[in-house]
Amino acid sequence: MTTRNRRIVLASRPDGAVTPDNFRFETVDVPEPAEGQVLVRVHYLSLDPYMRGRMNDGRSYANPQALDETMVGGTVGEVIASRDPGFAVGDKVVGNLGWQEYGVADAKILQKVDDSRVPLSAFLGPAGMPGVTAWYGYRKIIAPKAGETVVVSAASGAVGSVVGQLAKADGMRAVGIAGGPEKCDYVVRELGFDACVDYKAAQTPKELARLIKEATPDGVDGYFENVGGDILNTVLGRLNTFARVAVCGLISDYNNKPGEAAKSAIQNPVMFLVARFRMEGFIVSDHLDIWPEAVRELTGLLAEGRLKYRESIAEGLDATPEAFIGLLAGRNFGKQLVRLV
Amino acid sequence: MTTRNRRIVLASRPDGAVTPDNFRFETVDVPEPAEGQVLVRVHYLSLDPYMRGRMNDGRSYANPQALDETMVGGTVGEVIASRDPGFAVGDKVVGNLGWQEYGVADAKILQKVDDSRVPLSAFLGPAGMPGVTAWYGYRKIIAPKAGETVVVSAASGAVGSVVGQLAKADGMRAVGIAGGPEKCDYVVRELGFDACVDYKAAQTPKELARLIKEATPDGVDGYFENVGGDILNTVLGRLNTFARVAVCGLISDYNNKPGEAAKSAIQNPVMFLVARFRMEGFIVSDHLDIWPEAVRELTGLLAEGRLKYRESIAEGLDATPEAFIGLLAGRNFGKQLVRLV
Is residue B272 less than 8 Å (CB to CB) from chain A? Predict the structure, then answer.
């Protein structure tokens, strides 16, 4: 076994868009687990939009990522040394070991997973954080009633794809919004959504409004927001009375500079009274209590082949910064992972 | 008894601000009640901001007021002729007879009230629609937990004054926002709020933010919005994690012309994720089921002297248009009524 560990640290905070030189590669010793700790060889890293928020200083929904520290992030891997009775060498675990090849963690913050029915990488996707995020916003905030229309943006992504398939499994009308004909095709033909709006096909906000209206002839009862910008304002204009809007992400505003106007600024707040809708922001890590229930439903659907997903896999640690920048620009297709083993 | 009835009809829709010539006075015969109907002599008219929305054509949260028809609105009065066994001459009733001296209504949409413990006009105020509106937004949307801070705009008004007093009765920190030292003085000294921010004392949005911050040292957990504009955006910036925002009115945007940018546009929607707050628009008429419970609590507090209120009373039907325009401009102090008897 090697005794050297490669890792990526935050070298500087982005000034607007993220660039490769915000990151620095380092080679250090593989850490030794202390009593109650476990050493994990990382098989897959998860890259997620929330990481962009943490790269900024100042108040956000998570503490800022420290400079010169290993970039934080979700991982799956295999235990290669254990000083905790709950874990044995060879156990597969989900954890937050960050952008590195090997990591040590306290046993109590690792979660053993059973990859006999579901591939290991799914625990970073539809059976992991993105899937549970979709489940929470869909089940607990949108909570649709029979016959309702549920719309989700970034519909081909790791979270959005699960939202729409949960809606279809419940018999709702599921409408996706995605960028480009390839993604929209996937959303309708492979994932089984009723319709998908290609927002890149609209040249103007008015055209976008027409496309969304055509896809939602009975209006919108539940909206799961991952993106923001014009899409948000357009969907708000289609809301039915007592609609619910779950705000999971506003990726179009994560690169704003201080003082820059938000692209997702809500232009017509009087809609709150016209449609008496409810809009709620959430972060799944506030709701760890629902995790087991959500994972049970999601792995069940996965094992039955009723929950499809796609992965966009970058190969090797060196490819990580570029894959992350691509994710923020919407260039990935499906859950963005980096394979290390 | 006179056989002539004076009334005010909508003569034209406003182009921006409401003007007196949007209204026309008419004198017609007092109507005869049909079987199942009741004839009421109106004692008080209620003037409310929602009427402004109904004066516009197009989609709003209520159907538009028809041209050349009697202006719609809440009233209290006395039965002077009845063709329904449930009502006798002399009964006091709340109804929606509109801007006129006499009106006929189906018995089933009138509500008998007991004015032995509480004055008749209170059933248009703290024991009527404004009071129940405050109760719903406070109890059902904000639903505060011990030790929380509740902020309400238009705090000296018919709705806002009840919100803050309910919060104080529950032991919360209640902070009002109102225009001018006289109103703020009333909110703190007479109504017993912990603090009141005079938004007119702020020359800039930054100064407004400073004043609101000083009044909410522990942040804001519940916000009851009547006004909108800079005040809304400033309070959103003070929200604590899991805060609730009840949107009851956005009076600063009711006079907008088509295409005009909303003063209440939500400038920093990423706050939905930073604070994971919930924002919900509501209209009390959607929730008639809670009316008896709300009126019971409100009349109890009123009879015990624990719920104070103030009325701004215009005298006679002729004074109605000017009183309504004054209400929209914030010139009233307390619930705006017109006394006809």
Answer: yes
